[in-house]
Amino acid sequence: MSLDPREMRAIFDKTVLVRKPSYGIVKGYHELPYVCIGEAIESGFRTTLVKGKVMVSPQFIITPDQYGPSYEDIFGEEHVDQALTGRYFGFMGFRDKPVQCKSEYMEVEHVDASIDAVLSDTLEELERKEDITAGVMICPNAQYYPISIEKFISSILDDEFRF
C-alpha cells in the first residue's frame, strides 16, 4: 500500500508532539533522540514503539534532488515499509531548506500495552533519567512512522533555525 501526498500530509498533521528537547541547538551536527509511539503494526500486540536518534546538520548543504537520500538511506532497510523504500526522502516540512539528516540508531519494539500506558512509562523513564534531549510523539499510523519523525525534526528546525 502506497500513500498519496494527501495521506502523507494527514499523517504529518495528525502526529502529536508530546515532548520536544528542552535545550538549544548550535550549529553543526546534532543528535535528536526520539520515541515514536503508535498502534501496533504486528498482530498480537497493541502498540508499536520506535526509538532512535537522527543526526541533523543545519549547515548549508546543497544537494541536487536526484542525489537526495531515500527513506531506506535514512531509516535503514530493515525497519522501513517496502511501499516507502523507493521514494526519495524529501521532508514535507522543510523540503527546500539546506539540512541533511541520517539515522544512527533505531529500535522497533512491539508491546502488549496500550498507547497511553506506553506513553506514560516512556515519559516517566525519561524523567527518571533526567533526559532533556529526547522527543516523544504519537504517530497516527505506526507503519509510516518516518513521516511522524519528519514532523519532529521539522518542528525542531523551525524552532531553532527559523529558516
What is the secondary structure topology, with strand pairs?
Layout lengths: L4 H10 L1 E4 L10 E10 L7 E11 L13 H5 L24 E12 L3 H14 L6 E5 L5 H17 L2
Parallel strand pairs: 2-5
Antiparallel strand pairs: 1-5, 2-3, 3-4
Helix pairs in contact: 1-4
- Which series of helices and strands comes N to C? HEEEHEHEH
Distance between the termini: 34 Å
Dominant shape = globular
> Could you list the spans in which at least 5 consecutive residues all have pLDDT below 50?
83-93
Count of folded domains = 1
| Beta-strand residue fraction | 25-35%
Radius of gyration: 15 Å
Q: Roughly how much helix do the residues carry, as a percent range?
A: 25-40%
Largest sheet: 5 strands, mixed
Instruction: Please state the structural category.
Output: alpha+beta
